[in-house]
Automatic annotation (TrEMBL):
Keyword DNA-binding: yes
Family listed: Belongs to the class I-like SAM-binding methyltransferase superfamily. C5-methyltransferase family.
Pfam families, A to Z: DNA_methylase, DUF7893
Active site residues according to the UniProt entry: C760
Protein name according to UniProt: DNA (cytosine-5-)-methyltransferase
Gene3D superfamilies in the cross-refs: 2.30.30.490, DNA Methylase, subunit A, domain 2 (3.90.120.10), Vaccinia Virus protein VP39 (3.40.50.150)
TM region(s), chain numbering: none
InterPro entries: BAH_dom, BAH_sf, C5-Methyltransferase, C5_MeTfrase, DUF7893, SAM-dependent_MTases_sf
Biased composition (Polar residues): 1212-1225
Length: 1273
């Protein structure tokens, strides 16, 4: 029989067949209680606890022989005394001949070992602690064993037997028996000259049982993995991915009716064994290396996928650059920052500069580097003529205004766009303006802004402020509106609008020159709703928002009638209620109840979709996220029968419900290609992909474990471009033009979306020295996103970092890193939004806030902050992104009503099994349910004494309750802070860190609320929203480091929905990439594509279609249209395969997708079951207060049933006017483009410039009265 073990070691008899063994080396490698990096060790001042490590009581974590007060029930016999008597017993009793013999050993002696405990050698740092045999050689530990040696009638209780090696039997598939047996050999037994002595492990001692059960399961896993590798045909390479499905299929085919195999598989739960194989890869590799055919087995890619020893599936890139590489524009913006010495400017090669300019021209960016001359002084002969509508004038702020805005004498002019004037009796004019902001008036603040002659139109007017008169005007200025170049001859250029409420920058549009501040917000919002829409309302006294269906709107009374929807989980007492196999918070029940509320109680839209009962159990994204994103499901209706409430299944979607869409992923060819920087384990990028709109093609990270994790979880890893190296070397390769199609460097134009999370330690409050060389280098990498955006010019991009990035650095007054980042991106021409996202607001159980900065190319729909769906926890303190020069905060968080309560720690994590204090070392069902580093007795003893009530107690409370004797505590501070603080069961988990250390006085909240241990890897990944199916490659400490650095998946998925919404509303789609999901819509002067997946049975989501702004005028083309038309032309010229579809105008819906308002008005009966007399018989009742038939008034903004005929033209004869060229001073059309009296040429004036204010007021009043007379907006 062939031998699997080294021939120098004898095997015990009756092996099936002989198996591999592990031999302990001569040296022992002790590890500290936590595997911390030096910079992350407990801080000075964190409490130190002094506890005698010798056990005076019966501690279940230690061998019983290590406890002084324990007395064994058997007399203690030394191994030297027991072996001779056991050998005599072996010789005197009949036994079978050994199956094999090695090196002259004809006698193999097997002795049973019962009631055993295996523990660490008492002389070691963890002396006496119980330990699994799995770690014998893997961690270099000296292990001892106590137990009863038995042979026939001889039994001896022996202590402190030093384990030299172990061997596992059962390898091969020759028989149906899949069990394994474990043998150990002690140091003394191995020296016997007569016999090859082995101890067969039988029944463990009671408290060691759980550890041995885990090890026994692992030995069976090792056997099957080795057999699986051995039986592969030549040329077949097995990697970690093979254990996702193929391994289980192989098991069932070789053991089709084996109950033992089935029980073994059921203990693991599921057919994906990747996490289990990775968690025990050290043990499996040790088994393989002791086999005779190890050279063949190590050729498999499994070891490289799991990064075992020197194996690796991805080759690292050489580290060449020592500084942070930046483009010339990025360097000009950041060179004066406190980390500027770490920046290295690198201009692009000539061919790369050409590609960069082509990409900029394609997307509508100004050519050349963002530079601008100092603005000229305006026309100060302003008193010679009257102020006209459409002019830009300046004012001098008074002393109080200068003080508030901290103005200096060198920049004391405020600019404004004149939208209206009113003559006064004293000969002057009252001026109504929209303010223009200088860069320093925005969130850019006092940071370096390269375009010196740029202003931003704002949404701030003076309608409700103190009157401004023409006598206060100090100058007039010429403006290049919708500027497409930096070298304008005008005094200033204006490309974007600054939104004061959200502190964001958006592309300038025609409607921005109108002021609607007098219109009621509730009325404006209500006018976008129609019957069948699904919205939230705030009921009086309710704690959460309620989803309802719009039934009727009364604009005169300013109230709305809605249909009541019940939450399925609240109907448990209804007859017919069936519990769900999964916990679903977002399931609703249709009713026939209605009520009326004021418009002021109306919230935002929500999205409801019908599913069959089978579909409820297998919900697609995003309906399977328990309401995150405001997505709800419905499959039942409530009714009363015999005065008792019943629940019945809906046979189909209610006809009066306008359904949400099916957000199925697009085909890969239709998705936006993405690039990920500082990828980590990919939580940000994979979350952005979740909505089906992005396909991240390239990842850049210098952490080998992170890159291998991305490779392991990729759907098609061979198509990924993985750069295992520095972002600086990647950028240098790109700038030099040395990247090839076969390399991991994407070409310009291949990255439509960029996502990045620059190293947060550079801005973290936990760092010890923010000016250290390492901290400066980390902080300088915030510029990386700017350089990549500068070169690739993506359509959208995201940057995530800690909120503290927006704060002013200590000892560095005036260093506003976020403001400089915004300045750099805005100067390029990007729309920029900045906001804080709380993880718990989107369904996470974690108290984690992150700063998100999103950008969008000119003309595209920007990413807005996702609305919170889950409530704030108790003690929530709203934060803000930063502060303007006038002291006003921006980006402030809101504490508003939500439809769901926050997800508590207990609800999110209680499904995981109890592993006590973690000494067991693992969990069969959840392989990552283990500590990231071993704890010593000191930490375990303290946590045992931390009270469980009140929730959130820590060492401080334990000392106050006198649960820990004062002489055991040593501290350099009187305050112990948050050390050893338990997680609040009904609260949130503290922010997951890279090295959660329970003794740290500043971290807090990482000790389990009921178990005496810190948070496990599985709990951390669950808290961060990492899918259960994902495997995280690396050691336990590397796993926790990547998890702590990751973006919460709940946050990135919320952003992905906003990105899909923005893409589907934006201006550009490739017609060659259209699928059945796209419906072509014709608009005045252009074509566009909008997304519509609904039919009468599927419905549609008005958020994705109807909310697009209507075109109210068709007689002229705006400058915005002209720019987009030029971009469309460039698309055709440069790509020869693209055609821009401009999504701006009045939308027309297919008849199968949406009934018009007039059709809905005529429906007097609802197709909704209202009562049931007999089973299978459904009656329909009329809905209350049906909308009366009304003649539909003609209105350019109303919805039409003429598909593709937005302006009433006959079908088939819809014409489109070619876009005009951009008006200039020399244009033939300049006469019509002048202001009312002055003759000053301007690029743009409001469409009503020729009307008097009195006429406009009367017209607006008549329009309002007409709109109020309509039943719906």
């Amino acid at each position: 029989m062939a031998c699997r073990s080294p021939p120098s070691v004898a095997q015990p008899p009756r092996m099936r067949p002989p198996s591999p063994q592990v031999v302990v080396g001569n040296e022992m490698r002790d590890s500290p209680p936590y595997d911390y990096a030096p910079s992350m060790r407990p801080r000075q001042g964190s409490p130190q606890v002094v506890i005698n490590t010798r056990r005076d009581g019966l501690n279940p974590d230690y061998a019983q022989s290590h406890n002084l007060n324990w007395q064994p029930s058997w007399p203690i016999t030394s191994e030297q005394e027991a072996l001779p008597k056991l050998k005599v017993e072996w010789e005197t009793r009949p036994h079978a001949d050994p199956a094999v013999a090695y090196e002259g050993f004809e006698n193999v002696l097997v002795i049973e070992l019962n009631d055993f405990e295996i523990y660490v050698c008492p002389d070691s740092k963890y002396g006496g602690e119980l330990c699994s045999l799995e770690y014998l050689d893997v961690r270099g530990k000296k292990l001892w064993v106590d137990g009863i040696l038995s042979m026939g009638n001889q039994r001896f209780y022996v202590q402190k037997m030093h384990i030299k090696s172990y061997s596992v039997s059962g390898y091969g598939i020759e028989d149906e028996d899949s069990d394994t047996e474990v043998y150990i050999q002690s140091q003394i037994a191995s020296q016997d000259q007569q016999f090859d002595i082995w101890y067969l492990l039988k029944a463990p001692r009671g408290r060691y049982k759980h550890i041995q059960e885990l090890f026994s399961w692992v030995t069976v896993l090792g056997k099957h993995v080795v057999d699986y590798l051995e039986l592969q045909p030549d040329g077949i390479c097995i990697g970690l991915r093979s254990f996702e499905k193929d391994f289980h299929g192989w098991l069932t085919s070789h053991y089709p009716k084996n109950q033992a195999i089935q029980q073994w598989v059921n203990a693991h739960e599921g057919t994906d064994f990747r996490k289990a194989v990775h968690a025990h890869i050290d043990y499996i590799s040790q088994e393989v290396y002791n086999l005779a055919n190890q050279e063949l087995l190590v050729e498999h890619s499994l070891w490289g996928d799991c990064m075992r020893d020197d194996h690796g599936s991805i080759i690292p890139q050489p580290l060449v650059q020592s500084n942070t590489i930046v483009t010339p524009h990025t360097y000009a913006c950041f060179k004066n920052r406190y980390f500027g010495s770490k920046l290295a400017e690198m201009p692009p090669a000539e061919e790369m500069a050409i590609e960069q300019e082509n990409r900029k021209r394609l997307l509508g960016f100004p050519a050349g580097a963002p530079r601008g001359r100092l603005p000229r002084l305006g026309d100060h002969n302003h008193q010679s003529t009257e102020i006209r509508v459409g002019e830009v004038v300046s004012f001098t702020p008074n002393d109080e205004e200068k003080r508030i805005w901290r103005e200096d004498e060198s920049s004391n002019q405020w600019f404004a766009f004149v939208r209206d004037v009113k003559p006064m009796s004293n000969g002057t004019q009252r001026i109504y303006v929209i303010w223009l902001y200088r860069p320093e008036d925005t969130t850019i603040s006092t940071m370096d802004y390269p375009v010196k002659n740029e202003l931003f139109l704002s949404d701030s007017c003076n309608c409700n402020d103190e009157a401004i008169h023409s006598s206060e005007v100090t100058g007039r200025y010429s403006i290049e509106w919708f500027a497409t170049t930096f070298s304008s001859e005008k005094d200033y250029i204006v490309r974007q609008k600054y939104l004061t409420e959200s502190s964001s920058f958006v592309s300038l549009s025609r409607s921005d020159f109108d002021c609607d501040c007098h219109e009621n917000d509730e009325m404006k919002k209500a006018r976008t709703y129609q019957r069948g829409d699904t919205i939230y309302i705030a009921r009086r006294g309710a704690e959460f928002l309620s989803p309802v269906v719009v039934h009727d709107i009364d604009f005169k009374r300013q109230d709305i009638t809605v249909r009541v929807l019940l939450r399925y989980k609240t109907c448990a007492e209804y007859i017919g209620y069936l519990p769900r196999t999964k916990d679903i918070d977002n399931e609703l029940v249709w009713t026939k109840e209605f009520f009326t509320v004021p418009l002021r109680r109306v919230g935002r839209r929500c999205h409801i979709r019908y599913f069959t009962p089978e579909g409820i159990e297998q919900l697609p994204y995003p309906y399977n996220r328990n309401g995150a994103g405001d997505y709800w499901v419905i499959s039942t209706f409530a009714m009363k029968q015999d005065s008792r409430p019943h629940i019945r299944l809906l046979p189909a979607a209610p006809s009066s419900l306008l359904q949400a869409p099916d957000l199925s992923p697009l085909e890969d060819k239709n998705k936006l290609p993405g690039l990920s920087l500082f990828s980590g384990l990919g939580n940000l990028d994979k979350g952005l992909e979740q909505s089906g709109m992005v396909n991240t093609k390239a990842f850049v990270d210098m952490c080998p474990e992170a890159i291998h994790t991305l490779y392991a979880n990729a759907e098609d890893p061979d198509k990924l471009k993985l750069w295992l190296g520095s972002v600086d070397d990647y950028l240098a390769t790109l700038l030099s033009g040395k990247g090839t199609k076969d390399s991991a460097v994407l070409s310009i134009g291949e990255a439509a979306v960029i996502s990045a999370g620059s190293p947060c330690p550079g801005f973290s409050t936990l760092q010890l020295n923010s000016l250290s060389d390492e901290s400066l280098r980390n902080a300088s990498h915030v510029t990386t996103i700017c350089s990549f955006v500068d070169m690739y010019r993506p359509k959208w991009a995201f940057l995530e970092n800690v909120v503290n990035m927006a704060s002013t650095r200590k000892k560095q007054d005036g260093e506003l890193v976020l403001s400089q980042l915004v300045a750099c991106l805005v100067s390029m021409g990007y729309q920029v939004q900045q906001f804080i996202m709380n993880a718990w607001s989107y369904g996470s159980c974690q108290r984690r806030s992150r700063l998100i900065l999103s950008i969008s190319a000119p003309g595209l729909v920007p990413i807005t902050p996702p609305a919170a769906t889950h409530s704030n926890p108790e003690g929530f303190n709203a934060r803000r992104v930063g502060e303007l020069r006038n002291g006003q905060g921006f980006g402030a968080q809101e504490n508003c009503l939500t439809p769901f309560p926050y997800v508590s720690a207990a609800r999110a994590l209680s499904h995981l099994p109890d592993i006590g204090n973690g000494v067991i070392g693992g969990c069969i069902r959840h392989p990552d349910h283990r500590l990231w580093a071993p704890m010593n007795s000191v930490h375990r003893t303290i946590m045992q004494r931390i009270p469980r009530e009140p929730q959130g107690s820590g060492l401080k409370e334990a000392i106050q309750m006198k649960l820990i004797p004062s002489h055991l505590i040593k501290s350099r501070k009187k305050e112990v802070g948050k050390a050893y603080q338990r997680i609040k069961k009904d609260g949130l988990v503290s922010t997951i860190l890279t090295q959660p250390f329970p003794a740290d006085a500043r971290q807090g909240g990482i000790v389990h609320w009921a178990q005496d241990r810190p948070i496990t890897i599985e709990e951390a990944r669950k808290t961060q929203g990492i899918p259960v199916s994902d495997v995280i490659v690396g050691s336990q400490s590397a796993q926790m480091r990547m998890i702590g650095n990751a973006v919460d998946r709940h946050v990135s998925e919320a952003l992905s929905l906003e990105l899909r919404y923005a893409v589907q509303k934006s201006i550009r789609f490739n017609p060659e990439q259209e699928t059945n999901s796209f419906v072509r819509i014709q608009v005045a002067g252009c074509n566009s594509v909008a997304t519509a997946t609904s039919t009468q049975s599927q419905g549609h989501d008005p958020r994705y279609l109807r909310e697009m702004k209507p075109v109210l005028s068709t007689s002229s083309t705006t400058s915005e249209d002209i720019v987009r038309a030029r971009v469309s032309q460039r698309d055709r010229e440069d790509k020869n395969t693209t055609k821009a579809w401009v999504a701006q105008g009045l939308l027309r819906y297919p008849a199968c997708s949406q009934s018009s308002l007039s059709v809905l008005s005529k429906r007097t009966y609802e197709e909704v079951p209202a009562s049931v007399d007999t089973p299978g018989t459904i009656k329909y009742l009329a809905s209350p207060n049906p909308v009366k038939k009304q003649k539909r008034e003609e209105n350019t903004s109303s919805v039409s049933n003429n598909i593709g005929n937005p302006h009433g033209l006959p079908n088939g004869s819809c014409s489109f006017s070619p876009p005009r060229s951009t008006p200039t001073v020399d244009s033939d059309d300049s006469e019509g483009r002048k202001t009312r009296h002055s003759g000053l040429e301007v690029e743009f004036t409001p469409s009503v410039w020729h009307r008097t204010p009195e006429f406009l007021t009367m017209k607006a009043r008549r329009e309002k009265e007409r709109r109020d007379s309509l039943p719906y907006a």
